[in-house]
C-alpha cells in the first residue's frame, strides 16, 4: 500500500543557504514519485529562528494535519531545511515516531532515525549549522547563487563530496527522469514527428518542461546555427566547451543521447532545411 507524505519546506534569508521553496518542492515531489508514494500536502515557513520552531505557522499546521488524517511520512529536502539544531530535530523525530510517522530527507535519500540523526549535524549539538562545515552545506541543487548558471534540461546540480567530505560546488549530473524526456524528444523527431506536435503531446501528458514551464515548439526546435533548443544542444552527447576554447571536450558521464540518435536527428534536419530552401526558391521564382 502506498505511503501518504506531508512535505515541509523552510525558506532562509541567511547567508549560509539560498534555498527557495519552489526548488525544495520540486525535489520533494520527484523523490515522492521515485518511491511510489502519495503526496498529500506541503507546509512551509520563513526562517525566523529555532527558538520558536514549534510555534511557526507551517509547523503548527503540519502537526494539526497529522492529528486529523493518517500520515505515514514527513519529508523534507535536506535536514537543515527542517531545522538546523540537533536538539530540536531529535525532539521532532521522537514526536513523529510516537505517532508512527517516519521522517525522511530527499537528500541524502534516506530515512532519518535516532541512529543516523547526529551524522547530519556538527559536533556541537547546541549550535546551528555553521558556514564551512561539510555537514552544514546545502547541496548545490538547492543553491540559487549568481555564480551557478542555469543548466540545460536533463541535468541538475548534485551535492557530491570530495575526499574530505566537503561539498563540491557546481558539480552536475544527469537527471534520470528529465534525461528520459530528452531521449524521447530526439526519438520522436527522428521518427518524423514535428516539434509542434511533440510539445503538444508532452503538455497533454503533463510532462514539465525546463524549469517547470510548459513545452513550446521553440524550446524543442530552437536554432540549429546557434545551437539552441533541445534538438541542437551538443551537451546531450556529452560535449563540454571550456571557456576560451573553440573545441569541445567530451564527458561520457554526461551523455544522454547516443551518436546514432543524434545523427538521425541531424539527417532529418538536413532534409527539412533542403526542403525549406527549395520552397523558398520556388516562391522567389513565382514572385
Automatic annotation (TrEMBL):
- Supply one GO molecular-function term: DNA binding
Write down the Pfam families for this protein, in alphabetical order: Recombinase (PF07508), Resolvase (PF00239)
| Residue ranges constituting the Recombinase domain according to the UniProt record | 152-275
By its UniProt entry, which InterPro entries does this protein fall under?
Answer: DNA_bind_recomb_sf (IPR038109), DNA_bind_recombinase_dom (IPR011109), Resolv_N (IPR006119), Resolvase-like_N_sf (IPR036162), SSR_resolvase (IPR050639)
Question: Which SUPFAM superfamilies does the record associate with it?
Answer: Resolvase-like
Q: Which Gene3D superfamilies match?
A: Putative Large Serine Recombinase, Chain B, Domain 2, Resolvase, N-terminal catalytic domain
Which chain regions cross the lipid bilayer?
A: none
Protein name (Swiss-Prot/TrEMBL): DNA recombinase
Organism for this UniProt entry: Sinorhizobium meliloti CCNWSX0020
Please name the taxonomic classification of the source.
Bacteria, Pseudomonadati, Pseudomonadota, Alphaproteobacteria, Hyphomicrobiales
